[in-house]
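Write out the bound-state structure for adenosine-5'-triphosphate.
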Amino acid sequence: MGQVLGIIGGGQLGMMLTEAAKKFPSQISEVIVLDPTEECPASKVGAKQIIADFKDKDAIIELASKSDILTYEIESGDSEVLKTIESKTKINPSPHTLEIIQDKLVQKTFLAKNQLPVVEFVDIESLEDLKEKIKKFGFPSLLKTCKYAYDGRGNFKINSEQDLILGFEQFSGQTLMLEKFIDFKMEVSVIAARNTKGDIATYPVVENIHEENILRMTIAPARVSEKVAKKAEEVAKKTMDVLRGAGVFGIEMFVTKNDEILINEIAPRVHNSGHHTLQSSKTSQFEQHLRAILGLELGDTKLVHPAIMYNLLGPKNFQGAYKPVIVKSQEGIFLKMYGKKESKPKRKLGHLNAIDIKNTENIDGLLKIINKIKKSIVIEPIS
Ligand code: ATP
Ligand code: MG
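---
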């Protein structure tokens, strides 16, 4: 008999996990997600839904009581509540791993202690403390909230003395840290998996292009030397070794101008920069996550086809219902919409994968294809 899989979060990641679960009919009989949005993306592809906030303790307990195995697609679940139910329900990655990752200061301290390369950082306790510690890194530096940040919303770049007060006030009441600002050559990430038996597998390193702090495009493989690629994958493997949680993790890194690798942050879940694996690899990151938490053999992570993933974001000027997005069918182009009813500025509505099916294009060729198609995609209001 299959098990019931509970997922905290039923957005696009929960949706693609729900779809992947259909590959395991004898292991997973049902998927239930916890999500505050009615008719969330995962519910549209067959998951049952508990409608409640991600942090609603009773709802988490209800989800756990209905599930044999629990996982999450967001990192803001309540790790304290999860710890209390750990003895009754299998939770992967473990609440302990989640707790380390949830707080950027705890996460970076943990990584540094384990000799993993991280961006230089210090904790910030007060405005006075900030004024003193900024001397260590100089301008610009990056002030970050330690918890609940996403899409760069918890980051404030400090360019001058005046910014010290502005930044500090913007995040008043939150725990803070300060980081050296890295003038990096490239942002990359490695999607890594660890199953409950302890086996580790990593996907090839990919290149991430952000616009206004949101991931816009992922290029697989990253345009880096073999040496840099190897270094990034080694850092990812070692991270998985020390982190000990089961599941798929997205490990975001910077490649510095000297070709050093520095970890920026870890996501304890499937990651936007792994969406290309849906068509570029034998095993998608979603299938891999399920394999990892079910204790199955990890799948093949080889990149079979070079690929570019392009995020479709809600336009800045409107919020509301929008017309369906249509892309002319073309070999190697895969459009995935997440079924979100409303567009909001910069909301992730879907993604487009351009896959070099015949392995005859190079990355420049794929970039040209993406640039052409993206012009034909317009997210228009329904009037
Ligand atoms: P996400 O955007 O992944 O949801 P987040 O809001 O938690 O994450 P970070 O990943 O810490 O924020 O930072 C967002 C972006 O800001 C990074 O992808 C990177 O472009 C930039 N950034 C973060 N830290 C630094 C740094 N120390 N130096 C330079 N740029 C940085
Ligand atoms: Mg990030």
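---
The mean pLDDT is 96.
Residues 120-180 form a domain with the Dna Ligase; domain 1 fold (CATH 3.30.1490.20).
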